[in-house]
Predict the structure.
Amino acid sequence: MTDDRAAAVELDRLEVAYGGAVALRDLSLRIAEGETVALLGPSGSGKSTALKAIAGFEPVSAGTIRLAGRDVTALPPAKRGIGIVVQSYALFPHLRVGDNVAFGLAAQRVPRRERAERVAAALAMVGMSDFAGRYPGQLSGGQQQRIAIARALAPRPRVLLLDEPLSALDARLRESMLEELQLLRTELPDIAMLYVTHDQSEALALADRIGIMRDGRMVDIGAAEQLYTRPPSAFTATFLGGANLLEATVVSSGSSSECVEVAVGGDRLAGRSASRRSIGERVLVSVRRHAIALAAPGTDGSLAATIESVVWRGSAHHVRVRLSGGDTVAVVAPLTGDRPHVGDAVALLIRREDVHLLEEKPSGDAGTVSGTPAVAA
Ligand SMILES: Nc1ncnc2c1ncn2[C@@H]1O[C@H](COP(=O)(O)OP(=O)(O)O)[C@@H](O)[C@H]1O
Ligand SMILES: [Mg+2]
């Protein structure tokens, strides 16, 4: 997908090293005006390092950073015109909320009268108009994070960087802040956002595109929905989609590459592939946990399995089953069906469009597949 909006951020082969250790390598990324990109990856994968380099808090050892076409690689943070929000709020405890929000405006030499207007507008945007006179210590975590967002927005940056802004908040608050951030995006249609998180649900809720980070590299990038439904690699399938990975053999390949049949153990599954496959080819198949229905054993076109564990998680049963070939598969079963029981023989029904053949090959090296992270539900 090409984006014909102007580029707000252009990163070209960025590299950051701490001492001799390279923490970020070869990062190239273009973010258009009005676009939100999430960098998603496990802890230590280089997300914060990327963000700090763009903001100017960490010097780069190679590569260039352009903002709105201007090379800012050597500029100090205050000259880049970027708003930044971090996990820990980083508000000044001795300043009232209003003065915290005004902080960047004084440095920008915004006239006093206009400062007050901008502070009021930024506080209104995050629903905190009544709190200008309080000190940060008199606010809850969620309120402090709203103030931090208002402070970042008050100077009207064209680029907003957010580093795990919700991770210090409890689950319920995270949910409502996510909705507010979505709303903010519609209120600020021209701002470019880079949102760093280890939480796939935040990335999916907010981002137009998602870049997957692993060991200092961006290993995949694509439109959020495409990456989720058709992940290119095993790592992305498991980290972004919490998908099951199955090793399989191609048994038939239709005239269209979209229609493929694979053998998984003794059973067959219809699936989709982006490229042509040949009969007998070993492939990796990704199937998301929510895309599997439990049915009566023996159902046509299904995988035979036995239930190994069932955990009721409120809105669904989280079920682990073992296939006849020995692989285990995680299933999220809605509460509407029969309650699954440990030891039951079942059939796994999966629609063709949810059976996705990865381009990545299975390898004898167990590290490739089992080295991918376990993903919490
Ligand atoms: N100031 C630092 N000095 C030395 N190493 C660092 C520093 N900051 C981060 N690192 C290392 O760089 C790597 C990437 O870290 P970071 O960008 O913070 O990852 P993430 O934000 O994805 O969790 C990690 O191995 C981390 O230990
Ligand atoms: Mg980080």
